[in-house]
Model the fold of this input.
Amino acid sequence: MAGAAVAVSTSLCGGSGHPAFGPRPRAGPRPARVLVGRPSSRRRLTAVSAKPPKEAEEKVPAWARPGADEPPPWAREGGAAQGPGAAGGSVPFYAYLLASAITAIAAIGSIFEYTNQRAVFGIINPDSALYAPILGFFVFTGIPTAGFLWFKAVQTANREAEEQDRRDGFM
Done:
């Protein structure tokens, strides 16, 4: 997106009013005009383009160009375009993310229950033979499952973002 660069050069000639920061004496003839009061600052603005304007316009979708009659993708007939996986009932990324968070909380909570010797769900006491296997099952299956669900959430969100970019004409 670095199609154009802008350089700003500012020269303050005695703008502070302090003698040490005032204008330096120059060798050679002085200008005939005498400034009254505080000298103004000079600013130069130089625009440099790395690419010709035609190349920069090629990346702009047709619907985004000024004066275009084509509506944007989200305003076309039928609303948002349905992708190939949308009709198949794919799970949205936030469902994966929510399931990942709940699973991770349950797994870490099981570690705390085992460390503090609390009853599992308030039912199975620490002296039961099922106490360690149940908590171990939650810990050793919950942490990898939470990681997998997190990965699926990121993968699904990236796929949805790419599909939206494709519909918007950016890919």
